[in-house]
Structures are given as structure tokens and as C-alpha cells.
Amino acid sequence: MGDTAEGQDGDPTDSATKPEFEIVEIVPDGDILLDVTFETSKETLKAARKAAKPRPGQKIVPPVFKPRTRVGYRVQLAVLKQNSKYFDNLLSDTRFSEARSIEASFQRLSLKNVKPSEADAADLPLVKILEDDEATRSAGQDSAFEDLLRILHRKQSTSKAVTMQYLAVLAVLADRFDCIAIVSRYVNALKYKWPTTQTRLSRDDGPALTRAAEETLRQKILVSWLLDQPPKMHTATRELIMYGSRRWSVSFDEEEEEGNSAAWWDLPDDLESELHRRRESILTTIASIQRHFLHLYTSRTRQCKLGYESSASCDSYQLGEMVKFLSGRDLLFLAAADFSSSSSPQSSPAVTPPDYATVDIGHILATLKQCPSYQIDKNHTNCGLRTRVLPILEFVQAMLSSNVVSVSRQAWAKDREGVSWCLSREEEEGGREAEEKKKKKKKKVFCFTRGMATDQRLRYEGAMAADRMARALFTAGEWDWTPEDRDESRGAEFGRWPGAR
Predict the structure, then answer these.
(1) Stated pTM of the model
(2) Which of 123, 334, 486, 488 shows the smallest number of beta carbons within 10 Å?
(3) Are residues 308 and 457 in the same domain?
């Protein structure tokens, strides 16, 4: 957004001529006039006109959007300075030409024995402001700006229909003019019911967000962060982590995507990178379950639990069925080595896994739970993957319901480094020293036990034990999903007692 224009070096007042723009009286006894020019980009105008175009059969007159709109607002100087730190600094500090011109205009009016609150609009001090659409990518910002001024003066807003788009623009303006507190109280008093997140159901990928639904969800996160709405932020950040974002896709191209440059498409104050990191950490944790059991069934350690009749054929059978199930659900991809030096990429295409940036995490867990209970014959009833993986999946699902998965507004505002899942700044910036420290630092290993699977305290949302456990689970560097089973099997495998090792 632009800063104040025309008046940093010269006198922004022009009391000799009548203003050649529309004047909106926020208060009839206002003592200054804000001369605001709203500039709208071509891309925003195109999108706004397309959205406002009436559907077939609708008898409505679409609004007229202009690339440049100039409006004057009659307001009270004391109210602006009291409720907005931006206006307090701009209009009080005589180092700015706006403050000096207001002081000079008041002196001229006093010489004429005219009170500023009773003067004509043409005689009032004029403060010029340039407002662009860089942060909101929304047309018609003049109505939201007028409502902002009315909120500052504790007047009724003029907007008939409140939407998340409107609240997002209002929140961005409140942040720009540093009047968050009073706007937050206004939004609370609105009693506006925030829309629920709508998803489209796909047969293969489960519920997913449409572009419009994701934009609304991102607007909810931005509004709840800027206007101090902790419960709303808790819910919205969790939903974006679980459903994912098209912006986090490896194929995302910001230049090709229209309308993705608004403030909510790149959440401020490190929220964007934090939410992306939390989702990546959860997906990495879930992927470690598959890798763990594939490693077990491809190792020399016997996994068949039938005692004296344990069979290597059973392990081979279970491995084959496991690979067949995972590859059939797009959770495992096999690529054969091509030893021909003359082969071209067209003759041996590489296996490209699908992008899971917009796949629901709950759908991935539900897919893994569909693993059938395979058995090579009627005696091998508990040798397959299903018996061993279901308690793990139930545990992960319970951890996903903990409060630590979403971003707490209070914690993010006061102790960002303590609650963040992202790497430290030193590790992100790289460097030889940071790399050496990273090598010396041992990876945190999370060991799953039977006690965790049966501990009912971890099932309650908000339990402190569950929050600590979930943080340790999703931020670990390695995962051991069967530590107890491996300890029990080592002695029998090598024909020695555990004490002989």
C-alpha cells in the first residue's frame, strides 16, 4: 500500500479553491479533510468485473469499478490521533508537512474567528493519502476505508452485507493505519457468523479445498491474527494444515496464478512458513510408518509370529501384499533401474509421485486403515500389516487432535521461537558452523510403545500430556514404531538369550 502522497515537501492544503471530488462527512463537525486517492490495478479490475457480472436471469446492476477514485472524508483530528497511532504520528509530529500544514490552517482560521468544526470543507486542512490495492487486490476499497473511519469515530458502518472478503480488507486497513484495538472490538460486536470451510469430495484424494474455499480459509486466518480472534485462529490454522494449500505445491507458479498476491495468500509474521512446516512434519511422520514396515519385511529379521511354525514364506507373502496395497493406493512407487546407456527419457519415463500438497491428511490415514488382514493360510492370523499398523494410526490420529497442531495466537505473539516447529534462523541461513552443529546434534528419535496405544489420557483434546507427546512425535528426526517387538525377537532370532548379547 502507498504512504501519504504529495505533501512531504510542499503544502498539501488548498483552501482557495473548492475541492473537485466527492466529500463524505464522517462527522459534520469535522475539522480536517482527508483527501484519499484509491488506485486499482488492471488485474484487480478485471477480476472484480468478472465476479460482479450478473448471471443469466439475474436483474441486477453491477457496480462500476474505476482504476482511480478520489474521495474526501471530513473527520475529527482528535479522534484520529486518539484511535490510530499512524494518524497520531503523522498529524502530530511537526517534522511531517501534514502536521505543519494543519497547524498553519488552524491559525488562518483563528484569524478569521472561524472554528474548524464550523468551517466550510474548502477551508479545512487537507491531508492527502494514496491507497493502492497491493495488499488486498480488491476493488472498491473506498467503502471499506469509509467504514474504517466511521469505526474510529464510533459511528454505524454503511456496509449492508458483511463477508470474509470485507473483513479481510478491513483488517488489512486496520493494520496499515495501526488501529487494531478499536476495529477488533467492532468485529466482536458484529456477531458475524464466520462461514464454515466447504470442501469438494474427490473419489481418489478425499475432501479437498477449492480455490475459493482456500481463499476464504486464508482470510479467516489473517483476520483472526490481525484482529485478535484466538478461537477462530485455532480452528482455521488447523484446517489449512490438514487440508493443505495449492501455494505449497511444487508446481505452484505465483506469476501464472491470478489474484494470489493478496496479503492472505502469503500470511504475515512467519505464519505462512510455519503452517507449511507443520504440515510437512506431519506428512513426514505418517510416511515414516510405511517406510518402517517396508524396512522390517525386507530385512533378515523374522516378522512371522507363529512361534515354532514361523515361516519366511509368510514374511515374503506379507511383503508382496503390502507393496501391492500401498502402490495401488498411490502411497508407494516402484521404479526399475534402466541399465541401457542409449535409452532416452521418452522410452523410460521416470515415476513421478503425485503432489500431496492439497491432499487431506485425514484421508491419508483413512486409506492406510483400509489395509486388509492378509494371511498365507488359516494359521497365520496376526502376521500381516493391519494388526500392527492400526494401533499406530489410531495413536497418530489422536495426536492430530491435540492443540499443539494448530497455531495459538497468544503463544505465537509472545513466544514465537518457543512454539515454532521451523528450524532456527541460524540453521535456515546455513553456513559451515551451522552445518557442523547440525551434524553433531543427534536426531530426536520417537519410540512408539504399547503403553501409548492404550493410554486413554492421550485421547482427550487439550490434555497437556497429549500436547507434549504430539510435539515430540511430529518434530522428531527418526521414528521407531516397533521397539518392543524388536527387543523381544532378538534373542529368539539368533538362538541366544538376551543376556548373552
Answers:
(1) 0.85
(2) 334
(3) yes
